[in-house]
Amino acid sequence: MSDFINKLYKNQALFYKVFLFVLTSVLIVYLLPKGGKFKYDIPKGKPWQYENLYAPFDFAILKTDEEIAAEKQDISRSHIPYYNFDTEKPGRIKEDALQEVQNVFADSTLNIYETIIDDFVAETVDKIYEFGLLQESDRLEPDQLVYLLKGNEASEVAYRRILKQGEIRGFLNDEITNAGFSSFKTELLEVFFNSVEPNVTFNNNLTQKELESKLNNISYTRGIIEQGSRIIAKGEVVEGNKYNILRSLKAEYESQVWSQSNYNWIIVGYSALVALALLMLLLFMRKYRVSVFENNVKVTFIFFNIIFMVMLTTLVVNFNIDYVYVVPLCILPLTLKAFFDARLGLFTHVITVLLLGFIVPNSYEYMFLQIIAGIVTILTVSELYKRANLFISVGQITLVYIVAYFAFTVIQEGDINDMKPEVFLTFILGGLATLFVQPLIYVYEKIFGMVSDMSLLELSDTNSRLLKELAEKAPGTFHHSLNVANLAEAAANEINANAMLARVGALYHDIGKMHNPTYFTENQTTSVNSHDELSPRESAQIIIEHVIKGIEIAKKNNLPDRVIDFIRTHHGTTTVYYFYMKEKEINENAPSEDFRYPGPIPFSKETAILMMCDSVEAASKSLKEPTAVLIDNFVEKIIDKQMEEGQFLNSNITFKEIQMVKKILKRKLKNIYHLRIEYPE
User: HD domain location, by residue (predicted)?
Assistant: First the structure.
């Protein structure tokens, strides 16, 4: 039992990875659509490459979006609007008009013409309200039919039959003239204008309700393909009606309700493919990114980002498929590049895009666009902490999307008339959403305890509390750290290592010297040496102790592990040579282990660079009269000794890169000492 528990304890990291792998696979399969997947690609405008295709079952031919839009437009154009006719107003208005006759006309006129005028007014009011008076013109065609609602009855009349308020003056003028009442025109117009008012209004509610009912009754299919009918023969060009039939078959196939047996097999198929994709990612990390693979927090972080992108895309697709490119998928390679490296970021991005191919329509087009955009992201964003770089990269990503979409549309449609301008807007929105990567990286740093280049930029500020404390307690060490930081940054740039990380590591590598600053030469301001009263062994222990104290101070101040690595490794397993040789003067058999730093040796290019720069900068202070030849030999001697001791075996740095670092250090030291060409006297 104890052996089993011990074995379980030793392999707990592996068990966790298996659990994470299974959990991620289950979540992704859960998010994927569970319908069947049509096994043929439909290459519009190209020959059918497969064997003759026959209908596996009866299915309806779907109308194209253009046909449905045209049908809706025809319905909207031919739809008859409804108008309410107020049946009570004409009677009341006629009474008001006859009363106005009494008020407007003189008594002498009424004594002679009252009956004739009253008859004319009454007849004219009847004519005005035969089909009603409308206040505003709705800009309909004169012959457009409308429904006139009188109570519960609707009659169909031509729109021109309804009198508009803008036409009333001309209508009255004609009626007065035709009736021979021109001499009473002013009085009659006053009578009508004082009494006549509109009684017809547009019934928007009923009109829209009726229109929506007609639109909802549109048939989205036309015709049926019977089972066994040949759909397309091998070599036939996929276009026109053939393309629509194939598209209809695909839609019917993927929307079928599957039996429990079929459904289970689909789940098995999806599970196998998702597991295979995630397994490739794990194997890649195990072979090429061992440090990432062995860190469960980092593996969890990568898998979390994959699930997050799959979930976000699924939500957008379920909401509206047209917005699928608004999802800022390029955030994934950007984030992983900020925390790890470009190759891991791109590999993870490709795996994620392959998984998303199960979710989105036109999967080949989608995957092509997203993979190209991911490659552009990786190639263009070199320093994420520089805001200008991110904006430039976003512009390039958006441009790639637009160019690729343009090319696909031209290939599929044969012209540019079918391009949808709204798709370009989704590309722009997706590009702008990519800017969210900076606050997202900050959140990830707090949740997962990792460090990005943006955090390194903050740590490189020499006005930070810890560096200011170093400058106050150990000013000589602080000045030394600044010099080493400049050397390390220049060397890292030369061999394409992480220059920002190397600089930050150099700034903090000696913070342990704050504990006993006067025991280090650069901080001794008087001729009194604190080591004079100590034995060589005690002095060596104080010197070695600055590494341990530095780690303690760094952890107390919450410095990231990537920075603490520089404190651990900047002396590797070298010996405190000066005090070791002094001890040997006393005891020839003195063990070197007592004078050796605990290590570990550098395990990255950046930590190897720091070891070289630190040793060279510190030792250069001993040069009395430096010359170009002396500096060259001096740098070669120090770094060659470190190589002989095997200090760079784990740091993945090549001989060529070490030579390049040497070259940079020689040039920088010559600049520091202001060496000039020696002219002959």
Answer: 477-619
Q: How far apart are the first and last CA of the chain?
A: 87
DSSP count for the chain of H helices, then E strands: 28, 10
b/e code 405-429 from CB counts within 10 Å (16+ = b): beeebeeeeeeeeeeeeeebebbbb
**Residues in CB range of 6: below 8 A, 6 or more apart:** none
Are the CB atoms for 356 and 370 separated by under 8 Å?
yes
Q: What does residue 44 show for φ and ψ, rounded to 5 degrees?
A: -60, 130
- Looking at the DSSP assignment, which residues form a beta bridge with residue 62? 221
Angle at 228 between CA 227 and CA 233, to 5 degrees: 125
pLDDT in tens, 265-288: 778 888 899 999 999 999 999 998
Q: Are 121 and 188 in contact (CB under 8 A)?
A: yes
User: What's phi and psi for 156, nearest 5 deg?
Assistant: -95, 120
Helix (H) or strand (E) holding 225: strand 221-225
CA atoms within 13 A on the CB side of 319: 11
Q: Between 65-78 and 204-216, two packed helices, what is the crossing angle to 10 degrees?
A: 150
Is the pLDDT score of 469 beyond 80? yes
CA atoms within 13 A on the CB side of 145: 8
- Report the percent of the chain where pLDDT is more than 70: 91
Q: Is the dihedral of CA 285, 289, 291, 297 positive or negative?
A: negative
Instruction: Round to whole Å and give the CA distance between 208 and 211.
Output: 5
pLDDT in tens, 210-266: 888 888 888 877 778 777 778 788 777 777 777 787 777 777 766 665 555 666 777
Mark residue 631 as left, alpha or beta (left: phi above 0; alpha: psi -120 to 50; beta: remaining): alpha
Per-residue model confidence as pLDDT tens digits over 511-548:
998 988 888 888 777 666 777 677 878 888 888 898 99
SS3 256: coil
Residue 418: predicted pLDDT: 65
SS3 for 53-83, per residue?
EECCCCEEEECCHHHHHHHHHHHHHHCCCEE
Radius of gyration of the chain (CA): 43
Neighbours of 356 (CB within 10 A): 24
Band of residue 381 on the pLDDT scale cut at 50, 70, 90: low
Instruction: Look at residue 260 in the predicted model and tell me its pLDDT.
Output: 57
DSSP 3-state of 580: helix
Task: Name the one residue in this structure whose structure tokens are 């005005």.
Answer: 128
CA–CA separation, 100 and 129 (whole Å)? 18
Q: Would you say how long the chain is, in residues?
A: 681
Cross-strand pairs, 47: 237
CA distance 43 to 411: 10
